[in-house]
Sequence to fold (363 residues):
Amino acid sequence: MKLAHLKVSSPGRICLFGEHQDYLGLDVIAAAINLRTFVEGRPRGDHYFYLDLPDTNEKDCFLPESQLPYLKPRDYLRSSVNILLRLGCHFDTGWDVRLTGQIPINAGTSSSSAMVVAWMKFLLEASDCHQLAPTPEKVAELAHRAEVLEFNEPGGQMDHFTSARGGLLWIRFEPELKLTSLQSPFGTFVLADSLTKKDTTGTLGSVRQRVKQGLEIIKKENPLFDLKKISENEIRESIKTLPPELGQPLLGAVLNRDLTEEGLKVLTASPFDEKEFGRLLLAEQDILRDLLGISTPKIDYLLKTALKQGALGGKINGSGGGGCLFVYTPYEPEKVARAIEESGGKPYIITVDSGLSLEKEFY
Fold:
């Protein structure tokens, strides 16, 4: 039998706790959401790939027989092909492929990572190389290689693992990677696109660079300094000699680390305390706004609007500087969504969703 039709989808994500922590090796808690990217294709009679991306009005065509040149700075679709070619994959036929999505683009909900995860899975199936990544986690690792490592970008692995695995996920990166699926206690959220585009790599790079510079200065004085173990009082003392633009992100990282631990306790307690969960989301927003400086006046305004309409808490989502926020709305999410729309945002009522999905037809 030969493949006649192939369809793969993967979800976007929200980061509940641990924003800007994965590239520091600190814990994160994230959830896949029911806004998805779809990659659908049919084999051709030749060896060419024809790609149609109607959401961004882009098209591409290539022959995947040798390493593909990159035509733009973040050419993730071609880099995914190159990664697999280096691993020995071979494409016996070409494909007509259509990539579409429901996830807001360049808005902090992992639209690019979800696309790369789904595309990587599509390519693995199309080349009959699925044994290279027999689990969603392995697909996520390849996707991270294609999106982040290939272009030396500053992102971590949270987006890829959450999109591939799905559900509510606690990720520990050190001393070794550990993914723990948690039972979701949630009702609905409202995701709100502020309709202000962000510079993902620029914002991520800026925060990461400031943390790195601060760490280098502190470690010259204290080589045993460990961001994973230092207490809040100790970090406050350590950053006194640093300029605020370097010290505040370090303090934010420690406070965020401790808040993630609190969040994990709330999410695994029975019964689930939804009001405490909302309070912790707002506490994380305070850290991201005041210490990392990644919120915006419009996001702050939309959050206040949602809280007035009954949302229990919320925060900016993703690298920041624009994009989306989300609020927890187990009651009357439609009311909150209307208020966000009237205030200049684009709302989506969302729930926690599954990870990678694969459909195949044969002839």
Remarks:
- The longest strand covers residues 28-43.
- DSSP finds ten helices and twelve strands in the chain.
